[in-house]
Design brief:
This protein is an alpha/beta fold. The protein is built from 26 helices and 15 strands. Strands 8-15-14-9-13-10-12-11 form an eight-stranded mixed beta sheet, sandwiched between helices. A hairpin with a 5-residue loop joins strand 11 and strand 12.
């Protein structure tokens, strides 16, 4: 039969399957402790020929797996298997939670809600332009408005506003709101009503919804409308109270400021009177002096500039005082029209003289007459030049005198300005005090009149948009919603509990778990045969379970046992395994049933198989096959029977049984004897396969003793029953005893 016919059986292909791995390993007793074999993603060290000290010092000797490579991918199938496996817990948690939610919902009282809608403006409407309220609500900025609205929301839900609701509705006289002592305090009632109020601002608007919950719908409507009215009255009273307080304070300040203004004005009048400033004010006088200084300074600059220009011309005149020709080149001389006419006449006469001289000679009477005219013109020219220079000198002197006069005038104006500055130091504080008192008094008086007007207007920045109406039905409890939430919570809690139980479960469940933990190959998987271990004490159930492979050779269990048999036969073809010990970490894990069915499948191949019951404490094989137990292995060891007398034939062809015999008081000592080793050699010589059913490894040392003398040991673990600690302890126990661990059989698998 193909070994792949059984689910969970290791592969037998030649590309890295189970047989290729097994064939490449040396299971001989001479293998070194550091021999390493790789199986899948788990690396394990072969525990052959290892002493107890080596097992303690060498981690590989104890078979501890070393992960060669990891896969961190999440396998959702694992979670689904956990949920499917633990579904009763999940269903129970969901049902209990949903039932509790259902009961709790229908035991809750019915609550009704009524709501009214308010419009809250940051400022009240301005009836009179420019007249502002005493109490400014919003500032107009984003953060200012945000703080304003948050403040209003808190005020609506405050004790002060709720106290107005209680007083308006007269709830202090309502018996339903009286305390245990029969008394009703308005403040206590207001505080008790606050938890019933919810404020829900409408996003991106100035609307605010007041929601009141109560056990009675009529009372919820009454409270919602009364709370809106109480907030309107509270807001208006707050503004009017501010106006009244401001009016009283402004009245006191106005009387004081009026007296201070009169005193300051009188002091200013007396000072102006003493300084002769009544007709012309200080500011006007200072402006006049400033204007005079400006004009004098401008005129002085002009005169100084003219004087500088005249001085340059005067220096030329003084330099040419004795030279008439140089005088004639002075600009002032050249500007004189008389001098220019004389010069032109002189030029004309000289020309005429030249013409006559060339014609008549120098002694001619006409020439002499021209010389006389020229001499007279020259004297007139010099006289005119001197007169022009004298006139220039007079102008220069006049300019110098004007400059000096302007300088004296400038000095006088400066002295007067300095005197006025001294007066200003004393005058301005008096004028400033009087002006400030007048300004403040005017502001106070004006604001007092505005506040009187706002108090008369009674304009509010809050109004009711919608009033509360009778609700159509209760808002709480919500049966379907609570039931759905309870169901979801129950499912979540059940799933969490299922995963918690699964996480706390440290038993071995799959082939991968076993190989990863123990570092040895899994020879095969065996499903549940005939019933649970708890039913093995009943004879019929016991036979059905232990001989299930023989009774039903076409079953899944039979196919799995044949796969295990094939794996064992192919483990070492050159050196066959003839004596095999079958043990388990703990009792009631199916090792005896596995040993019987393994022996049955080996007998089916035609070879002679002997099944030996070496469980000298709780023997069971004789009960499974229905043979007597008076003679067996225990009587052979003590020499009271022979092998032929002890061996019993069974209903299974080619399968014989060597029962335990009477249970001895010292089983471990008997198995340690040389006689037992010789008996085992005799059995091996007579039969092709000898399978020994041994006690569990958890409490006794018998499996270690048997494994030391047998060719190999098979460890049977129960899926979902054998813990990791027990399996690890059993493996370490066998390795320390130098037993050759052939592999593990995972029993009672739920495919």
């Amino acid at each position: 039969m193909n070994v792949e016919e059984c689910p969970g059986t290791p592969r037998t292909d030649e590309d890295g399957g189970f047989f290729s791995r097994v064939k490449s390993r040396d299971f001989g007793p001479r293998a070194t402790p550091s021999q390493v074999a790789k199986s899948g993603s788990v690396i394990y060290r072969e525990p052959v020929e290892t002493t107890g000290e080596q097992a303690a010092s060498d981690p590989g000797a104890s078979g501890t797996p070393e992960v060669a490579g990891g896969d961190n991918k999440i396998d959702l199938r694992i979670y689904w298997r956990t949920i499917r496996k633990r579904w009763p817990i999940i269903a129970l948690a969901a049902i209990l939670t949903a039932g509790g939610a259902f009961i709790w919902t229908y035991r809750q009282p019915k609550v009704y809600e009524a709501s009214s809608m308010l419009v809250i403006d940051s400022m009240a409407p301005q009836v009179l332009q420019g007249v502002k309220d005493v109490v400014e609500m919003g500032t107009g900025t984003f953060w200012g408005n945000k703080e304003f609205f948050e403040t209003q929301y808190r005020i609506i839900q405050s004790t002060a506003v709720m106290k107005g609701v209680v007083e308006k509705l007269g709830l202090q006289n309502d018996p339903a709101y009286r305390g245990p002592n029969g008394k009703a305090d308005v403040l206590d009632i207001a505080r008790s009503l606050l938890p019933q109020v919810q404020l829900k601002p409408v996003k991106e608007s100035r609307l605010a919804q007041i929601v009141v919950s109560d056990l009675k719908p009529e009372r919820a409507v009454m409270l919602a409308n009364a709370l809106a009215d109480a907030y309107l009255e509270y807001n208006l009273d707050y503004k009017l109270e501010g106006a009244r307080t401001a009016t009283a304070w402004l009245g006191e300040q106005a009387a004081d400021l009026r007296k201070r203004l009169q005193d300051s004005e009188l002091a200013l009048y007396e000072y102006k009177k003493n300084r002769n400033l009544l007709a012309v004010g200080l500011d006007e006088k200072m402006n006049m002096i400033s204007s005079n200084l400006q004009h004098v300074n401008q005129r002085l600059s002009e005169v100084r500039l003219a004087r500088v220009e005249l001085e340059s011309t005067r220096r030329l005149i003084l330099a040419a005082r004795n030279n008439p020709e140089e005088k004639a080149s002075i600009p002032e001389i050249q500007k004189s029209p008389i001098v220019q006419r004389i010069k032109e006449s002189f030029v004309t006469l000289n020309k005429e003289k030249g013409d006559l001289t060339s014609k008549y000679g120098e002694e001619h009477p006409r020439i002499k007459a021209l010389d006389s005219q020229l001499a007279a013109l020259r004297k007139q020219w010099e006289s005119e030049i001197d007169e022009v220079l004298a006139t220039f000198e007079k102008g220069y002197r006049a300019t110098v005198d004007t400059e000096q006069a302007l300088e004296r005038m400038m000095e006088n104006e400066k002295k007067e300005a300095i005197e006025l500055s001294k007066i200003e130091v004393e005058y301005k504080p008096l004028g400033r005090v009087a002006a400030e008192n007048d300004k403040v008094y005017g502001l106070i008086s004006s604001r007092q009149k505005e506040i009187d007007l706002t108090g008369l207007m009674r304009v509010n920045n809050v109004r009711v948009l919608e009033r509360a109406v009778l609700p159509s039905g209760p808002v709480r409890p919500k049966p379907m919603q609570n039931l759905g939430v309870g169901l979801l919570v129950g499912l979540g809690a059940g799933i969490a509990l299922a995963f918690l139980i699964e996480a706390l479960d440290n038993t071995l469940k799959t082939q991968a778990h076993v190989e990863t933990l123990l570092g040895v190959p899994v020879l095969g998987l065996i499903p549940i045969i005939g019933g649970k271990q708890e039913d093995k004490d009943e004879p019929e159930k016991l036979r059905e379970r232990d001989l299930g492979v023989y009774l039903d050779p076409r079953s899944l269990a039979a196919e799995c046992c044949r796969s295990i048999r094939t794996n064992i036969l192919f483990m070492s073809p050159d050196r066959p395994v003839r004596t095999i010990v079958v043990t388990s970490p703990s009792p009631r894990e199916g090792k005896t049933t596995t040993a019987i069915n393994l022996a049955v499948t080996m007998a089916e191949t035609g070879g002679r198989v002997l099944l030996v019951d070496t469980d000298l404490r709780r023997p069971r094989l004789h009960r499974s096959f229905g043979v007597p137990n008076q003679v067996g292995i225990s009587t052979m060891i003590v020499g009271k029977s022979t092998l032929d007398e002890a061996i019993k034939s069974t209903d299974v062809p080619n399968l014989d049984l060597l029962p335990c015999g009477p249970t001895p008081p010292n089983p471990s000592e008997l198995l340690h004897t040389d006689r037992f080793a010789k008996i085992l050699e005799a059995c091996a010589a007579r039969y092709d396969r000898v399978i020994l059913d041994s006690p569990p490894c958890s409490a006794v040392t018998d499996p270690a003793v048997l494994g030391n003398v047998a060719d190999g040991v098979i460890l049977v673990v129960q899926a979902g029953g054998t813990t990791r600690d027990a399996a690890t302890h059993a493996r370490r126990h066998l390795v320390a005893a130098k037993a050759r661990l052939l592999g593990v059989i995972l029993n009672e698998i739920d495919f």
